[in-house]
Write the structure tokens for this entry.
Amino acid sequence: MEVTVLGFGAMELRGPGAAIRNGRPMAPGQADRVLNAVLDGCSRESEIAFVGHEPDLGGILTRLLSLPQEYAMRKGAIAALDLPIAGEPLRAGFAWLLTGDRRIEDPAMLMT
């Protein structure tokens, strides 16, 4: 499996069992401005990972899932989305979110 990693700020990439290709780095605070271009540039990728910090990652999750309010990802949280929904390049399906010892599979639970 090959994963393209798109990150905010400086990153060091390591990944056992997967080919990791460092994608285009993005400056912190620029997620909303560059998300269209980033996803367009990765349209042929089968796996994409966004790596970074808040509020960028929560903003990406909020935008791609069309959440009614801003979601803040906890430190160490991992979210899996199905990108893109056909005909809607900035709309994703929610697969799951891991945060601490909790696995969330219902996007409605993100708002609780």
The chain has one domain: 2-111. The longest helix spans residues 31-41.
